[in-house]
Amino acid sequence: MSEQRDHLPTIMPTSNRPINAGAALDDDTARLDAVAKVTGRARYARDRYEPNALFAAFIRCPFGAATLTGLDEAAAKAVPGVVDVKRTGDEGRYHGEPVGFVVAESKHALRRGLRAVAPKWKRGSVKTTITDDAGPIPATEDDVAEAIANADHVIEAVYSTPVQTHSALETHGVVVDHRGDTATVYASTQGTFSVRDGIGDALGLARSEFEVRCEYVGGGFGAKFGPGKEGMLAAEVARRHERPVYVFCDRAEEHLDTGNRPSSRTHVRVGFAKDGTPLATRVHTWGGVGVARRGGGARIPSQRYDLGSVQKTHEDVQFNAGGPRAMRAPGWPQGAFAEELLLDEIATVAGVDPLALRRRLDGDTARRAMYDLGADLIGWSRRAKTGTQSSVVRRGFGVGTTSWPRIPARAEAEVVVHRDGSVEARTGTQDIGQGQRTAMGVIAATKLGVPLRLVTVMIGRSSYPVGPGSGGSMTLPNTAPAMMAAALDARSKVLEHVARRRGMEANELTIADGYVIRGEERLVGWEDACRGLPDDGVTGRGDGRSGAAHRGEGTSAGVQFVELTVDSETGVIAVERVVAIQACGQVVSRKTAESQIIGGVIQGISYALFEDKLLDRNLGAMVNPNLEMYKIVGSRDMPHIEPVLWTQGQTGVRSLGEPPVVPTAGAIAAAVFNAIGAPVRHLPLTPDKVLAAQEGGAA
Amino acid sequence: MPHENDDPTLPGAAPPGRGVTRRSFMQTLGISAAATSALGGEREATAAVADDTPVLGPGPVPITLRINGKPHTRTVDPATTLLEALRVDLDLTGTKEVCDRGACGACSVLVDGRLTVSCMMLAIDAVGAEITTVEGLARGDTLDPVQESFVRHDALQCGFCTPGLVMASRALLDENPKPTLDQIKKGLSGNLCRCGTYTNVFNAVLEASGQTPIADAEEAMP
Ligand code: FES
Ligand code: FES
To answer: Buried b vs exposed e over A623-636: b needs ≥16 C-beta within 10 Å?
Structure first.
């Protein structure tokens, strides 16, 4: 079956989410690449085993700090199938830092070669957490200190979050098919063009001489921009040997050296009035950036709540670990966790309902309406007052909020209409699972006025029109206006031809449901109309600016409600239900939009309950660089999740990727506090911490 | 083991797999070598280890795997896992490699109908078995009902976990045609999805087994 037939749209209505009926430009079409993905025909970069390919991998430091004192290159080169061994450095500053690489004819030879080099190491001393090196909190400004001191109540607390790895199921990697004066680069990337722009020198080719392709990408979540060291290694080896080269991290390497959501520590002192209104807040955060210099910011205050006069300071703290990379709403879930739990602690001291407190502190009109809807849907009236339950299994309710800006980026698109009526919608941007392919098809078909089955979406190639990387929720908000403009441009070109042949004015005509229409009259069917086009068809072009009228302004607001239980004897938390209300402007494809929200919530649950990159405090080595000990939420931990697409007052296409992951962990922490009567201020919310909090009050 | 289930109605609870001992494997080779000239080289391999303790490797070993109803013969390194044989040697890349140590289920296939993580099985141990991969579920353009309901309920995002979840769902329904939600959660607990598709997968499996997906609350938008 050809790839294009794999992308044929299928109209498949579902009725289990009545609240979202009619929310989108397209409610019922299944994801365009769903068939390719469920049949195994979708070919990811990691699936490219080119004939005659070489395999390469890094030799990596196994400790938090160590000097390489010996490497048996001769032994490795003697292994049948090993082609090359290279030492590139002597110092390992973190577990996983590359100090050389091996190239071999097969995966087996590569593995044996990596064993045979038998590196010798001299270990150094290590730092493994923020607290090993955190500086003091800078002085508090006088007016803030005074306002806090004069308040009716003061809460002073420390919150912390662990290192979370992106753990995309397709690891980082690149396959380079080098043919001497041209090359094809198959990348698992969130940024087609970022790979092109970063890999050219290593390939020894001009940007015009090679193409980057990412037809399917097995997740990214912020860690996959640029060629990465994997891509640079593949390019260099491919250039040297003029052969295809395959470099993909294994699961351990993925945890160790492809970025992470940095750990955080948040110290808060807040003074508030009797009714819970914050008067002044002093926040200091530390971010754990490993060997990187920055990137550890934690977004508290979020600006969604009025916390009185605020003084915020931040320090990035280095230790012996791989550095962070942007991870789905970088810095925001860390901040939201501390802030949402803090608000519930304030409400409890003040004796007010935490939802009522948020309503008072949150000025956003959309969210204020979302609070009402969500409270009804979750059944907030069933919430017991915090600290009043004594049963074995205790029920908790929590709420958290989110927002995300629309970040402008350059984006262009093309819509080609052929004489046979078939349509190509082209953008070089990538589909990393968010549904970009589907959204592009829906937009092109809708704006052109033809059925989606006529449209072939062509994405993920550096030879297609330029667009942003999939970070900061930038892809659709910027490519949607470009694709709309391209489709409208193609439409007017088609209509000009039809009008000219019939002696009409183009502006009398329009296209809808696959017909050219004048007034009420169906003038001619789409395919017949296209037959009159020039041989090479017509091409409509659009960019984000020409589509400015379709651009969404403003933020994507959201509110999430959580219902859970805590077993007070075992400390185990069972999340039962999450209602996630999310605005994102004009929804394009209902199903993929719902999935984005559900996926954000699920990652938030995983962050709240399980994930923790643990380093051995003596060796500095990660003790759980796998998927059995680095625990990610699984099917048995799933609540019922209800994504609600908020459409009221929404204009343009806005951000959707990041906002749903922001509030979940905070809402869960608030719900746990509600259930057991003591806050657990350190993620992940594992049973030991829950039990300790129950025993001793705040943990 | 793909699953550590306590519920005997679920996949993974079956007794330890069929397993091909090295000895019986060599016998298999001997028979096939006699039967087909294409495998001529194996006669010597058999002869060379004709005593009681046959040893495979360290050199490459010719094997024949029956995959999706068709035999495929390749010469592989004896350390090759079934997963690597499928992906690297046979270019059947629908089966995904994610953890390579039995923790995620992305590499799930059916071996004689039994759900198996192919990264934890040597290719030479799969000789003689009937292997079904995700490529073998659809009949031409007609999707398996599990695949079709995955598509309908958007039970996939990036799609990298999807082949494994499709196979695990198929195996679950083969053993338990009408699983409860709880049985579905247990039956799929060996499969990790990072994008977060689990709840849509549950709905897909419910629908593929003729049951009603779980409906969200209904409420008018203000
Ligand atoms: S790759 Fe086999 S279980 Fe993860
Ligand atoms: S859909 Fe991406 S990992 Fe499951």
So the answer is: ebbbbeebbbbbbe
Q: Phi and psi dihedrals of A347, rounded to 5?
A: -60, -40
Which of ligand 2's atoms lies nearest the C-alpha of A219? 2
Largest CA distance in chain B: 81
| Sheet with strand A515-518: strands edge to edge | A509-512, A515-518, A521-525
The helix/strand/coil state of A11 is strand
Kindly state the average pLDDT of the residues A168-172. 98
Q: How confident is the model at residue B186 (pLDDT cuts 50, 70, 90)?
A: very high
**Residues A230, A246 contacting (CB under 8 angstroms):** no
- Widest distance between CA atoms in chain A: 85
Q: What does the block give as tokens for A479?
A: 């490519």
Average pLDDT of the residues in A416-443:
98
For residue A167, count other CB atoms closer than 10 A to its CB. Answer: 25
Which DSSP string do the residues of A616-671 spell out, in sequence order? -TTT--BS--SSSSS----GGG--EEEEEEE-TT--SB---SSGGGSSHHHHHHHH
Closest Cα of chain B to A154: distance in Å?
Answer: 37
Rounded distance, CA A591 to CA A33, Å? Answer: 13
What is the domain-level CATH number for residue B87?
A: 3.10.20.30
Choosing among B56, B95, B189, B194, which should be mutated to test the A contact, i.e. which has the most A CBs within 10 A? B194
B42 confidence band (pLDDT: 50, 70, 90): very low
* Structure ipTM over 0.85, yes or no: yes
Q: B192 CA distance to ligand 2 centroid (A)?
A: 8
- CATH number at A372 reads 3.30.365.10
3-state secondary structure A246-294: EEECCHHHHHHHCCCECEEEEEEEEEECCCCCEEEEEEEEEEEEECCCC
* CA A288, A294, A295, A297 torsion-angle sign: positive
Supply the range of the domain harboring residue B33: 18-52
Q: For ligand 1, atom 3, which residue shows the shortest CA distance?
A: B102
Whether residue B39 is found in the same domain as residue B101 = no
SS3 of chain B: helix, strand, coil, percent, to 5: 35, 15, 50
Q: Is A588 within 8 Å of A27 (Cβ atoms)?
A: no
Atom of ligand 2 nearest to the CA of B195: 2
Integer distance in angstroms from the first to the last C-alpha of chain B? 50
Q: Answer yes or no: is pLDDT of B33 > 60.
A: no
B82: Cβ below 6 Å to ligand 1? no
Q: How far apart are the first and last CA of chain A?
A: 58
User: Considering the domain boundaries, does residue A180 fall inside one?
Assistant: yes
Q: Does ligand 2 lie within 6 Å of residue A627's CB atom?
A: no
Confirm whether A256 is domain-assigned: no
| pLDDT on residue B218 | 83
The answer to whether residue A186 sits within a structural domain is: yes
Torsions phi, psi for B16 (to 5 deg): -45, 145
The total of structural domains in chain A comes to 3
pLDDT by residue (tens digit) across A73-120? 999 999 999 999 999 999 999 999 999 999 999 999 999 999 999 999
d(CA A692, CA A676): 11
Does a structural domain hold residue A39? no
User: How far is A424 from A185, CA to CA, in rounded Å?
Assistant: 23
Whether pLDDT at B1 is above 50: no
Neighbouring residues of B36: CB distance < 8 A, sequence distance ≥ 6: none
Q: Cβ separation of B91 and A49 shorter than 8 Å?
A: yes
B10, part of any domain:
no
Do A567 and A457 reside in the same domain of the chain?
no
With beta carbons under 8 A apart, name residues in chain A contacting B80: 108
pLDDT band of A546, cuts 50, 70, 90: low
Contact at CB, A37 and B143, closer than 8 angstroms = no
Contact A490, A446 (CB under 8 A): no
Are the C-beta atoms of residues A422 and A567 closer than 8 Å to each other?
A: no
Question: What whole-number distance in Å separates Cα of residue B186 and Cα of residue B188?
Answer: 5
